[in-house]
Structures are given as C-alpha cells and as structure tokens.
Design a protein that fits this description.
The protein is mainly beta. It contains 3 helices and 32 strands. A 6-stranded mixed sheet has the order 3-2-25-32-27-30, with no helix packed on it. The longest helix is centred in the N-terminal third of the chain and has 8 residues.
C-alpha cells in the first residue's frame, strides 16, 4: 500500500468561517492539555532571555553557565562536544538580523529574524545531527568558517556540500538535519527566525559515524518501543549500482547517492515508513540481498516482498509494508536523478490503528480555561467513509479521502470557539459536525457554513488555518482531521482550541 504526498498552496477564507487574523497563542502556559492518543503535559519553553545555556561545553561544573548568545557571525560562540554531543538552550529574543535578510540559503522563506551563531570543530567523514526544537518558526543552517554573505549563501544552499539548511521547523515541533563535512575544520551553525520571528530554542548536536554507503555495509536499525528514527545525509556518497537498480522501471533508475539500512521485521505485522527530505528522494525496501536483480524483484513487487515510494522535494511520503516472512529486510534512501542528495529523516514504527480512526471511537478532549492542544498523526488512521465526505460541495476536488482521526468535545451554546489547525502535510482540512457518525449528517453539518458545523480551507504543509464556531445548542461535537486531493495522504498535525 503506497501513501502519496504532494505539494499544495495556501488558500483564503472559506464561507466566512475565517474571521480576522489568527491570534493563536503558541506560548507554553500551565493550563494546557496535550492529546496524542493519551494526555500529557505540554512542552515548556526554554529561557526567555537573550542568553544561552550549553550542556556539554567545557566548563568547571557539570552544567554550563548561562552565556550571552552571539547574534554576530564573527563572534560565534565556540561549542565543544562532550561524549559526542552538546545541548544548547538559547533565545533570539532581543537580538538583531545581522545581514538584513541577505542570507537566504536559496530558500523562499525569509531568514530575517534575529539569529544566534555557534562554531564547532568538525571532522571530515563524521556526521553531525542537528536537532532543533524552537518556540518560534525557524531554521538551522551550517556553513564554513566565513562571515561573508555570498559565501554563507553558497555553503548553506549546498545540500550538504560545504553546508546545508534544515526544513522549516514549526513552533514547538522538532526537526533534525544531518551534515557530513568533506574537510575537517571549523564550521558555523546558525539558528534563525523566519519572517522576523524570534523566541527560545533547544539545539542538540550529535556526532556519529556513517559507514553504510554500500549495500553490504548496511546499518542495522532496531525498533525501540516499536519506533526508530534515522537522520543522515547522502551528500558526498557515490552511487553504487548505477542504472541497474530501478524497482522494475529502467527509465527511472536510481542513479543518485544512497545510504543502506537493514531491519528485522515480523511476518503478519504492518510497519509504517515515513521519509522526509528537502530534495527529490526514493525509498525502496527489499529482502536481505545485495544483487540488483533481487533488489528490483523485491522492491518492484508492489508490497509482496518489498516496495518503494518517491518523495517530492521538501515533502514527506509514507508507505505501509507488511512482510511476508519474519526476517531481515534491507532498505535504501536514494534518488532517481544525479545531483539529488542531502539530509533526510526516516521514521519507522509499528502500524497500530487507534480507536479514534473511527467516528464512533472519537477521542474525548476536555477543554481547559486557556487552551487545549492536540498533536497527533493521521498516518495511523483509516479512510472510514471512502469518497462519501465532501461537506456538501460536489466534485472530486472536495472529497475528503485521506486517512482521518476523530475527536469529540463538549461545546456550550453562545460561546465562540476557535480551532487553530497546523498540518505538517499538504491539502489537509479540519471539519466539525454535531456528532452523528453517518455520512449524510456529517456532510450537512460541516457544510452548513457555521450553523451546525464547519470546515477549514485546504492548506499546504506547515501553514496555519482556523475555524470559528459558535454553537446554537450545547452539545457534544466531533471534529476530524482529514485531507483532499490524494488517496491515503497523511501526516502529523497540531490543533489549538481556544
């Protein structure tokens, strides 16, 4: 089963349901309930002062003192790894944009927020994984030991050759990138805000070795608690098999740079593989073999003994694989074009369908006085009603045909509730209805333009949209997160209810 992802564009308001600019509060407050299949405490912000704290930098004590963060490249703060890692807790609040928006790393996002700079002595051939968790929309990027704008842009747009830049990291989420320097020496790491945004952040830097550049040297991946995450980069890696690996499509041979992995899977279980990459990528799964013919037979078998997916640049794609036999399977992150390489994140987990993949199993959400936050992933859902849900708008483009998750919430008549929705996949929508779990009543409610329910517009990855609703009667309502356009499209999301 292949779940496809695609790129979309942001749309405007829908039926008058979007009223005024969004005013969602993404700050951490004590009165927050986070729902992700279970209830947990909300993440706390880091320091709210323009300083930073480094765990792992050489100091006299076990924990580094608070150090002033540097918002100038020339004064980048040196970082020393201890045990191969360092954790930086910092803040760009009160800082400045040193280069006045001239640093772009060849991206459409404006890197014009205040930034903090750090410098690290890196070793050629080692891989450095940078994991950023910010309270503001931001990116982390790496470049050589230079503070010239033109050279910074050349390096950080190099897709791993000389430097690199992460995908956008939304507020309170975590994303990682990997960088493997071609030469040993000092490299500068910057945490920067998008659209002049600023805030606090945590940056984890980890050093590791990468030797899995051939199929025979595949790196072993082990599921812990049913999950595993691989963060690496294919930059600087030679193509091993040339035109001979193609999963049954010789005209689309995988001639890019690749890394290989091996994992033990159990027959009868289903596993979810999600690949996120800023460049065009392909993931293919095969048996425990390293001959091109056997790789092609398996990965071209449409799930029988292996499978494959393509990932468009800057997106994620997900595949479900059910191994026919218990044993070792190999998989690779590759590309079908020369010059397509760089960092990627691959998540693997046991696929378990939650109860709220069905409308009748909607997960109860208790509203708290300030806000309630829901963070979850529709890739664990199913498409319960097939082509039947369209919120009263006929036509293929309006059909909600992705996998969805359901939540139920008690709303009071006359009060206005705002559902802020940020999907981390494209063409996603949130719709609200009165709680009757049947196709016709759902469509009548979510297509009622606010009378008995409503629906957000379809938005692209990491874009914010919202739905205001004032119930006419106090009752329990159900809302679902779904998507249009592509069968099986799915991903993680965040809903803030205020």
């Amino acid at each position: 089963m292949v779940l496809l992802a695609s790129c979309g564009s942001r749309e405007g308001s829908d039926g008058g349901l979007l009223d005024g600019p969004p005013n969602v509060d993404h700050s951490s407050v004590a009165d927050v309930q986070v729902v992700d299949g279970s209830v947990a405490d909300a993440p706390r912000d880091g320091p709210s002062v323009p300083d930073m704290q480094v765990e792992g930098i050489a100091t006299d004590g076990p924990m580094a003192d608070l150090l002033p963060g540097s918002d100038t490249c020339a004064a980048a703060v040196p970082i020393a790894l201890v045990g191969g890692a360092a954790t930086i807790k910092g803040s760009t609040l009160g800082g400045s944009d040193e280069f006045s928006g001239q640093v772009t790393c060849d991206q459409s996002d404006k890197l014009d927020g205040p930034q903090l700079y750090f410098k690290l002595a890196m070793t050629a051939g080692k891989t450095y994984v940078l994991t950023l968790t910010p309270t503001f929309e931001s990116r982390v990027y790496v470049f050589g030991d230079t503070c010239d704008v033109a050279t910074i842009n050349k390096h950080c747009s190099g897709h791993g050759l000389g430097g690199d830049i992460s995908l956008t990291v939304p507020t309170h989420l975590t994303r990682s990138m990997a960088f493997r320097p071609a030469t040993s020496g000092t490299h500068i790491i910057a945490v920067d805000g998008i659209d002049a945004d600023s805030g606090t952040f945590t940056l984890l830097i980890e050093e590791k070795s990468t030797t899995n550049m051939t199929c025979a040297a595949a790196e072993t991946v082990t599921l812990v608690g049913g999950k595993a995450t691989v963060v690496d980069t294919t930059a600087g890696v030679a193509d091993e098999f040339g035109l001979t690996v193609h999963c049954g499509f010789p005209n689309l041979a995988y001639i890019g740079s690749q890394l290989y992995y091996r994992i033990d899977l159990v027959a009868g279980k289903e596993y979810l593989f999600r690949l996120t990459s800023p460049h065009q990528s392909v993931l293919y799964i095969s048996g425990d073999s390293c001959t091109p013919q056997q790789i092609n037979t398996a990965c071209g078998s449409k799930g029988a003994t292996g499978d494959y997916i393509f990932v468009p640049p800057g997106t994620s794609n997900t595949i479900l694989f059910k191994p026919p036999a218990t044993g070792t399977y190999r998989f690779a992150v590759d590309a079908s074009q020369v010059g397509q390489y760089g960092h990627f994140t691959l998540e693997i987990e046991d696929y378990v369908i939650p109860a709220n993949a069905s409308c009748t199993g909607a997960l109860p959400v208790a509203l708290l006085p300030k806000k309630t936050v829901i963070v979850a992933d529709t890739c664990h859902g199913t498409n319960e009603f097939g082509l039947g849900i369209n919120c009263g708008v006929p036509g293929f483009l309006s059909q909600l045909l992705g996998s969805q998750l359901y939540y139920k919430v008690a709303l009071t008549a006359g009060k206005t509730y705002t559902f802020y929705f940020t999907p981390h996949y494209t063409d996603a929508r949130l719709y609200l209805f009165s709680g009757t779990c049947a196709m016709d009543p759902i469509n009548a409610d979510c297509g009622s333009n606010g009378k008995t329910g409503g629906i957000t517009p379809s938005v692209s990855q990491d874009q914010l949209t919202w739905l205001k609703f004032t119930p006419q009667a106090s009752s329990t309502y159900v809302f679902a997160v779904d998507n249009t356009m592509v069968f099986g499209e799915c991903g993680s999301f965040r809903v803030d209810i205020q």
